[in-house]
Amino acid sequence: MTTITYDTLVRAGISCTSAYVAADEDQSSTFTNPPFAKGSRGINILPDTFFSPQEATPDKYDLLVIPGGAKGAETISSSSPVQHLVRRYLQEGKYVGMVCAGSLAALTSSLPKQPLTSHPSVKAKLADHFEYSDDPVVISGKLVTSRGPGM
User: Fold this and answer.
1) Which pLDDT tens digit goes with each residue over 19-69?
2) Of the chain's two ends, which shows fewer C-beta atoms within 10 Å, N or C?
3) DSSP string, 7-30
4) Taking a C-beta distance cutoff of 8 angstroms, is the pair 34, 51 a contact?
5) In 3-state terms, what secondary structure has residue 106?
């Protein structure tokens, strides 16, 4: 999901930065360059930088996007620094986008009950905590969720 969202934003003339969020088992590793992230279909993606909560603050960016993809969404949504930034972006009136299974970050970030959507594979985890919709895109204030980039 990262590739389609990133490509769409760049084609629209928006400056973007992709960041590698390490899984818990990768946290102890020291890298000089971000490693490739392997998509669920085997596509290797080279992020622009490592994720740094000190660098990804709302005063430096206009939008925070949490991509989907089963493993990636799980890794990103379980990151406490990402959860903190999701809340901070929304508190400061900035947009937060969550694509596909990336909507899990709404749950792990303890966002209040509000309308949202997600990929059908994570609906059961979200439906009791939010006003779940099967619409392709749901906008709730500054939180924008989608079922997927092509849905």
Assistant:
1) 999 886 555 455 566 678 777 778 888 899 989 999 999 999 999 999 988
2) C
3) HHHHHTT-----EE---GGGTT--
4) no
5) helix
Residues 53, 48: Cα–Cα separation, whole Å:
15
User: What CA dihedral angle connects 75, 80, 83 and 88, to 10 degrees?
Assistant: -150
The tens digit of pLDDT for each residue in 102-127 reads 999 999 999 999 999 999 999 999 99
Q: Give long-range contacts, CB 8 A cutoff, 24+ apart: 134-142.
A: 139/115, 140/114, 140/115, 140/116, 141/90, 141/114, 142/89, 142/90, 142/93, 142/94, 142/95, 142/96
Q: State residue 4's pLDDT score.
A: 84
Catalytic residue check, 16: no
Backbone angles phi, psi at 39, to 5 degrees: -70, 165
Of residues 118, 86, 115, the one with CA closest to residue 103:
118
pTM of the model: 0.89
Question: What is the assigned CATH class of domain 2-146?
Answer: alpha beta
- The two three-digit tokens of residue 121, written as one number: 């594979």
- Per annotation, catalytic residue among 100, 101, 105, 106: 100
Structural domain boundaries in the chain: 2-146
